[in-house]
Automatic annotation (TrEMBL):
It comes from Neoroseomonas oryzicola. One of its GO terms (molecular function) is acyltransferase activity. This is Acyltransferase. InterPro entries: Hexapep, Hexapep_transf_CS, Hexapeptide_acetyltransf, Trimer_LpxA-like_sf. CDD domains: LbH_MAT_like. Keywords: Acyltransferase, Repeat, Transferase. The keyword Flavoprotein does not apply.
Amino acid sequence: MPLALRIHPTARAEIDPGLIERTEGLVEAGPGAHVILGRPRNFSQRGRLVVSAAADSTVDMAARCFFNGLTIRVNAKGAIHIAPDCTFNGAELVAFDGPSIRIGRDCMFSSEIRATTTDHHVIRDAATGEQINLPSDIVIGDHVWIGRGVQLLKGAAIGEGSVIGARSLVTGEIAPHSLALGVPAKVVRSGIVWER
């Protein structure tokens, strides 16, 4: 079954025709949204893609990515940018309330992964009424391996060449070429390299 498209007349969508014909799932683009989906590396029955881009949001997935399951949800001027040659085996990327998720080249995402730029509900200081849990960007450098079940919260920043161990929770910065794991994730080894 071809990819279903629900594109608002004022949205701008640039979707590879092969992706539309041979990928299952749904792409929605609201008023003023901009969606770019390049030609993937895979065209298998398991290649399922769901993209929901609300008004004035941006989704940009470069060519040569591979996905066995990828859900992208963006609203309120949020953005998700995925560089070429990334692989996704079951990830959900959520950029709500303005910030962005940026994923570098050649990243590898295992299954049951969730990245979100917001807590989805506001927490305020009781005395001042000021919001204390503002949304924030998530940035992932080139050639990063995200293990199964990892959760990436707002403000996560993972340096290039790093590996995040299974079931870890990333809430802050991980230096390049680090092995990090735990809840919250902490660097347990530096100076690593990894191969597919």
